[in-house]
Amino acid sequence: MMIDRFRVQDRAAVVTGAGRGIGAATAVALAEAGADVLIASRTESDLTAVAERVEQAGRKAHVVPTDLSDPEAAGALANAAHERFGRLDIVVNNVGGTYPKPLLETDTEFLEEAFRFNVSTAHALTRAAVPAMLESGGGGAIVNISSVMGRVSGRGFLAYGTAKAALSHFTRMAAYDLAPRIRVNGLAVGSVATSALDVVAQDDNLRQQLENNTPLERIGDPEEVAASALFLASDAGSYITGKVLEVDGGLQRPNLDLGLPDL
Length: 263
What we know:
Strand content: 15-25%
Oligomer: single chain
Order of helices and strands: EHEHEHEHEHEHHHE
Number of domains: 1
CATH class: Alpha Beta
CATH superfamily: NAD(P)-binding Rossmann-like Domain
Largest sheet: 7 strands, parallel
């Protein structure tokens, strides 16, 4: 049956940034579709709550509290999953983010930190995952969570947008290197109701700007992103690689007024 192509029965996955938001929703979606999941983020209590939901779906959860701003820590997750589950089939690189800053306040160190957190960590985990994927299942699927800001312009988002644009192109380049046995795709995510958007969502003016600039006239839900990640990770997306799927409600121009000072 066609619906079976969306299942990932008895596969093993790693999801970073899985304590809340998109990462948590994706970990639970993969579990509900049949996968065991290693979940990683800084806060153990958040991960414990997500692990309970994974186990309620009848699958195994492995909790790894770690600082994912360190690429070495991110890379170590591949071996941890392989040792715990005996295989590794799916990686979701969800860790990332950077605070908005005007260009003149964005020094080189801040820009490099944004790149390391959003791109280097994904590269480290992807590189470490490849041998485990090839050994256990002969291949696998990698999904990178990028952003609409990687393809549109927005004031104050220079570091974040540049890093996410790099992650999107990393996705395309890695797909060529790892084909045909490992598929690599990404999601360019728009405005989604996560803790990272709390400051905006709690400000009526900023929230209204986002909703007005989005053709679907609302902020997205983490489960909507998780459904897309599951599609790309499952056999339903088996003929897709090197693509960045836009999950953004049709958003074309954020144009948020964050109150940043003029030059």
